[in-house]
Amino acid sequence: MVIIESEVPELRKNHVSQLTMIAFASLVIFCSLAQSQAKHSLSQEDYIFKKALKLQDMGNHRQAKILTKSYKNHPLYSYVTYFDLRRRLNRHPSSEVARFLNKEKESYLGVKMRKLWLSRLFKDKRWSQYFNFYDRSLSNETTFACQHLVSAIKIGRGKEFLSQIKNIWLSGKSQPKECNPVFKFLFKDNSFNDEIVLERIGLAMNQREYALARYLSRYLSSEKNKKLYRYWKIARTKPNKFLKSSLRFANSKQNRQLVGYAIQRLSRRDIEKTIYYWNEYSKKMSFPKHEQDIINGLIGLAADRRKNSLSLHYLGLVSKENLTRDIEQGRLRSALTFGAWPELVTWTKNDPIGDVSKLRWLYWRAKALNETGQSPEATKIYRELATNRDYYGFLAADQLSLKYSFKNQPVIIDEEEFNQTLKKTK
Question: Fewest CB within 10 angstroms: 61, 79, 136, 399, which?
Fold first, then answer.
């Protein structure tokens, strides 16, 4: 018996009302008028489209279409066409939709129309059409990606997409209900086994999706792997007990995932025990470099939260290729907390990879250089920073006893334009 996954209710779809769309269309008219210096009133074409949009809002699409048929090059013609097509999608005007999508491509209206059209085709089970109209630009939207895979399965091409199906399956979150038929197809394939189930259980546990992990455990077939899931639960609730009793674990990918998870959980409670067990397990198991970096980073960040100087050592062990935003910011915090200037000089050598302000980054690099006796290079950075109208620019100016650089740029007002604006407001 196949168990359906949908544990998370489907999110309500957000539809922009036609009134909102008309308001947006009116904004297009306004912007086009603002660029025109010859006239200060609506042109004949603009009046026609304003009237057409109002007619559509009242339900008179036929008259709106007749009114605008001679103005196909106008910017708002696509809006009139969009509203007209949208109301007729249940009649499956395939050729008209195809022409519209070919013209609009990835524009705002093009994307909206493609999604509406695909949703209609899926609802009406028109699998071949869905498969042909689907665009890869929607692959990051799981609902449409799964609908596309359903259409591929229905037309007998499911096997070609098994790797994509597995990628969607391997998520730490519950997937939309549209994915259920796709997962049913995967369950029947010989490539579906306990290993892929355990991998997803690990992802779910790390995402704190414990209900999903419990649900997934139903697919485990062997007693050995069911026991592994029970280990996951112990590692979550009693990480110290798990790590103490599992030192004889074999060196396997699943076991290393378990150990890493237990270390992460324990690091929130007891940093010293965490370090002890990590030292023990790193000797007994062959953790690849990227797994070592993840665990060292977790320990380093846990130590940083507790203002423990061990954070400097463990955050410093993370290699450049596995740096994350959190580790980068943890390094900066720890170095400043403990005055670790040599480490900060090393860590700020390259540009930040996260969202740390570049000026902030450079200021503390200059400070670290100055504290380690590299004053000429520090002065050079301070001088460059001091030209910026910014908090760190002002701090840099203070370091060199320079005046603040405000870079004042006064607004230049055209007198004639100003007088015309005044007249309009009276």
Answer: 136
pTM of the model: 0.73
CB atoms within 10 A of CB 302: 24
Which pLDDT belongs to residue 17? Answer: 47
Q: What are phi and psi of 410, to 5 degrees?
A: -65, 145
Q: For 388, left (φ over 0), alpha (ψ -120 to 50), or beta?
A: beta
CB of 82 within 8 A of CB of 113?
A: yes
* Block residue for tokens 């070609």: 160
Q: How far apart are CA 57 and CA 51, in angstroms?
A: 10
User: Per the structure block, which two tokens stand in for 296?
Assistant: 């060292």
Q: What is the DSSP string of 382-408?
A: HHHHTTSSSHHHHHHHHHTTPPP----
| Whole-number Cα distances in Å, 123 to 11, 100, 109, 126, 127 | 17, 21, 21, 8, 10
HSE, side-chain direction, 13 A CA sphere, residue 257: 17
Q: Residue ranges of the chain with pLDDT lower than 50?
A: 1-17, 29-31, 33-41, 426
Nearest by Cα to 357 from 327, 400, 325, 324: 325
pLDDT for the residue numbered 10: 33
Q: Determine the Cα–Cα distance for residues 250 and 370; give it in Å rounded to an integer.
A: 50
The pLDDT assigned to 215 comes to 95
pLDDT (0 to 100) of residue 9: 34
Q: Cα(303)–Cα(330) distance, rounded to whole angstroms? A: 10
pLDDT at 218: 95
Q: What pLDDT, on a 0 to 100 scale, did the predictor assign at position 74?
A: 84
**Eight-state DSSP code of residue 66:** H
Please give the full DSSP string across 127-161, using - where no structure is assigned: HHHHHHH--GGGTTSHHHHHHHHHHHHHTT-GGGG
**C-alpha span between 89 and 184 (Å, rounded):** 30
For residue 54, the Cα-to-chain-centroid distance in whole angstroms is 38
Q: Which amino acid is at 352?
A: P
Closest CA to 12 of 176, 161, 187: 176
- Return the number of other C-beta atoms located less than 10 Å from residue 196's C-beta: 15
Q: Determine the pLDDT at residue 52.
A: 85
Q: Which two tokens stand for residue 160?
A: 């070609």
- What is the total residue count of the chain? 426
d(CA 294, CA 285): 15
